Structure formats: C-alpha cells, structure tokens
Amino acid sequence: MKKLKAVVNTLDKKSHINREIYGHFSEHLGRCIYNGIYVGENSDIPNTNGVRNDIIEAFKEIKMPVLRWPGGCFADEYHWKDGIGEKSERPKMVNTHWGGVTEDNSFGTHEFFNMCEELGCEPYLAGNVGSGTVEELADWIEYITFDGVSPMADLRRKNGREKPWKLKYLGIGNENWGCGGNMRPEYYADLYRRYSTYCRNFGGNELYKVAGGPNVDDYNWTTKLMEGINDFHAKAISLHYYTIPSGDFFNKGSATDFTDEVYYQTIKNAMHIGTLIEKHNNIMKQHSDNMKLIVDEWGCWFDVQEGTNPGFLFQQNTMRDAIVAAVSLNIFNEHSDVVAMANLAQAVNVLQALLLTEGEKLVKTPTYHVFNMYKTHQDAELLYSYCENEEAGGKIPAVTKSASIDKDGHVTLTFSNASLEEDFEIECELVGNSFTKAEAQVLTYGDVHAYNDFEDGERIVPAEHKAEITEKGVKFTLPKLSVVSVRLF
Ligand code: AHR
C-alpha cells in the first residue's frame, strides 16, 4: 500500500468554518416538501405538526444548521400570503417550474418557521423578486419578525403565532439571471437595492442580506453586480454550481449507470468549485473587503430516474455522490475565509438528496452519512494541512482533505480517496498539540454504483475505522473509494 505523508499544524488557524457551510435547501419541487418533509397532520406517518418525525430526527442528527426555502425557481413565483391562515381557505396555484402540479399552499410560513425552531436551525428565505413586489417582500419580513402592533404582526398573531420568529438569512430573489426574471446584472443590481431597502431590521432582528450572484463561471455577472452594490447593501452574494457529469445540461448522464471514465470526470467537475470560488472572490475583492460567497445550490445533477415525473428531479445517490459530497465539503472548508454558507440541493427526494422516502419508508443516502461524518467541522477553526497526492483515473488528484480544531481543542480530519484502484496509508504528522486518543470512521463500498434503497437502506453506512496515535501524529488507511473522518482527543 502506498504511503502518503500529511501534516496538520494545530497552531496555525486559517479561518472560521461557519456551521452554515453544512447547510441545506428545500424547495417546493417534486417530493421534497409534499410527500417528503411534510405529510400533513392527518397522516398515518408519525409527524409533528405535519413534518415527519424520522426526518426531524435525521436532520437533527447531522446538526442541520440552516435550511433554505421555498426555492429555487419556485421562490420567484411564490406569494407568501397564500400560505398562511386556515389551510382549507388557502388559495391553490400551479407550480409552473416543477411538473405543473397544483400547489395547495398547506406548507407555508408558519409550517416552515416552526419546523426550523424544532430543528434548531436558521431559516434562510429566498424572497420573490421575479414576480413579486417590494411591498410583498417588505410585508413578509414584518409578518415574521415584528414584535409591535402593525398590520402584518397582527395578522401573524391572528394566525396563531404571538411572538415573532428570528430571521437572519434573506436572499433577494433566486437565479435572477435565469428563472428568477432573466435579468441583466445592471438591472438586477438596481432592483436588489430597491427590494433590500424595504426589508427592515425590526427589534433585535438583524437581516443578513444575500444578493443573487452568478451561475457557474459568469464572471461578467459578478463584476456588474459588484459594481452596482456594496457591503452596506449586502453581506454576501450567492453562487450556484451543479456537478453534471457530461457538462451538458440537456443530457446529463445516469445517476447509477456510468463508466469509470464518467466517474472520474464527475469528480473532476465537482473539484471545479474551488476554482470558481477563487475567481469570483478575486472579482469581489476588487470591490469589497467584507463580502462573502454563499454557495446556496450545489450538488450532483443527473438525468431523472426513469419512470418518474421529469419535473420532480428524483435521482438515486451512489458512492459517487458520497465522494462528490466529501470533496466539495473539504473544498468549502479550505475556502471558509470567503464561503460563509453552502446549501446542498436538495434535502429530501430531489437531486443529491440527504434522504429518500417512499410512503412510510425512509433511506439515508451515502451523502447523508458524509454530512454526519463531517459535522464536527461546524463552527471549528480551519487548520493548515497538507497531504501528498497521487493521480487517479489519469484526471484528478486522488485525495482531498481538511482539518479543523474545535473550541475544546479536539481536531477533526476528513479525507476522501476518489481512486477506484488504490488504497493509501496516511501518516499524518501533528504539529503543535499532542493527542492521546483517535476515533475514526470510514464510508466505503466495493462498487461505486452502489446505493441505499428501500430494500436495503443500510448497504452503505459508516463503519468504525482504525486510527493509531503515533510518536509524531496519527496513522490510518484511506481505502480506495472511501471517505474517512478522524477525531483526535
Ligand atoms: O435545485 C433545482 C433548481 O436548480 C432550482 O430551483 C434553481 O434555482 C436551479 O436552477
């Protein structure tokens, strides 16, 4: 087995890893909300105010820090006043983006905010700029966060919620260059200023406003947007990047049936997020010292599963997805000086989902397990780390890694090995603090096409792994096609 030397300096703290980097996204799309997260109070499936208990438990287990809602493209045709009050009286609408299905608005503001409170996670709203009004968005903020006497706060009370909720993260529209209005950046920048002006900070609530940033490598959008707004107007801009194996949006490739070459190309495409972050950040830095990037949609996007509604974006989730998740999260950690938040698309039953459901059954995907193995990076400090590397598949570096130290001085190391052929032994020198105990987990499987399904939901699960404290640091194996996390005490 090839040995790779690594170094982690526990005294060299690089940047704070915001817990929001481990964030998620839930859209009114397919079976993400309805028949996914939300089954309604009258369902036979055990639920709390209509939200599945097994989903609440699973989200809590990974310490979900933030959840984006209600879209996505859906956000720019969502009218929040349709989703409050007596459910039977809520108007219905057509979800024109996603399958043309009827949206009955039974999951609305109260349902979302109460669920976030139950989960202990920050809500992240995407406001409607594409087809909504300034007044509508301003009213929503007043409805959610105002404690005094006002038309919107009184309406909230009438609907059963006395105290305001807390709202920090507010996106002003979504994909304003596309489904959110097909705007030009100059026009959007002006609209951003107008809409965000009327989203007020009520009482102790302070909004963290996010401007709609670029798609993938649209550097012109970033430049023009940054010329049009400054850090007085926005704390961050968003970036959307999906990993598409073929790079062709109209013929993406299968989620489960792919060659080794396509596998390596997928991982290469996932790694491209690092370059995108750096290039967009270089542009942002020319205009502002403080503005951050929020990668509020990322993940694998494959062809929809045959036999399912093409508008529902349902896809399976294999070991390939687990490697993409591990690689991406390591990259976000390594760029945590600029990446303030990231949101995997999407939480349940859509794209690179954490969880899949069918009736009362629920499956945790390999991607879910990666989030669980990485959760101790949340709110820790990124450490300097280095690791020797080897090429895999003639295309990519096999190994990615990141290291962090938490407030109690415990260190988390996360490594991924994308090679389908080679196991490595990692000999990691630890400079600075010394440790007496190592606990490790490994997620791996003999077949990159393997996934968890309703017949066997435990096919791919993390297992305990051997990690040995040595004179200089810690030693462990990094099997081919694996993700390893090590905790040092
Ligand atoms: O996540 C699915 C869709 O992808 C979102 O609605 C949109 O913002 C993006 O194009």
Rounded mean pLDDT is 97
Envelope shape: globular
Strand content: 25-35%
CATH topology of the largest domain: TIM Barrel
Classified in CATH, the superfamily of the largest domain is Glycosidases
Strand order of the largest sheet: 23-22-26-20-19-16-1-21-25-24
**Treating each run of at least 4 consecutive H or I residues as one helix, how many helices?**
9
CATH architecture of the largest domain: Alpha-Beta Barrel
What Rg is obtained from the alpha carbons, in whole angstroms? 22 Å
Distance between the termini: 27 Å
GO molecular function: alpha-L-arabinofuranosidase activity
Catalytic activity: Hydrolysis of terminal non-reducing alpha-L-arabinofuranoside residues in alpha-L-arabinosides
EC number: 3.2.1.55
InterPro entries: Alpha-L-AF_C, ASD1_cat, GH, Glyco_hydro_b
Kindly describe this structure:
It is a single chain. With 489 residues, this protein is an alpha/beta fold. The chain folds into two domains: 2-10 and 383-488, Golgi alpha-mannosidase II (Immunoglobulin-like, Sandwich), CATH 2.60.40.1180; 18-378, TIM Barrel (Alpha-Beta Barrel), CATH 3.20.20. Helices cover 23% and strands 28% of the residues. The chain contains nine helices and 26 strands. The chain has helices at residues 53-61, 109-119, 134-145, 151-158, 185-197, 219-228, 260-285, 319-334, 366-374; strands at 2-16, 23-25, 47-48, 51-52, 66-69, 93-95, 101-103, 122-127, 169-172, 208-211, 236-243, 292-300, 339-345, 355-358, 361-364, 381-387, 391-392, 396-397, 399-405, 411-417, 424-431, 438-444, 463-465, 467-469, 473-478, 482-488. The chain has a ten-stranded mixed beta sheet with strand order 23-22-26-20-19-16-1-21-25-24, covered by helices on one side. An eight-stranded parallel barrel has the order 2-5-8-9-10-11-12-13, surrounded by four helices. The chain is globular and about 65 Å long. The two termini are 27 Å apart. The relative contact order is 0.15. Bound molecules: alpha-L-arabinofuranose (AHR). Alpha-L-arabinofuranose binds next to loops.
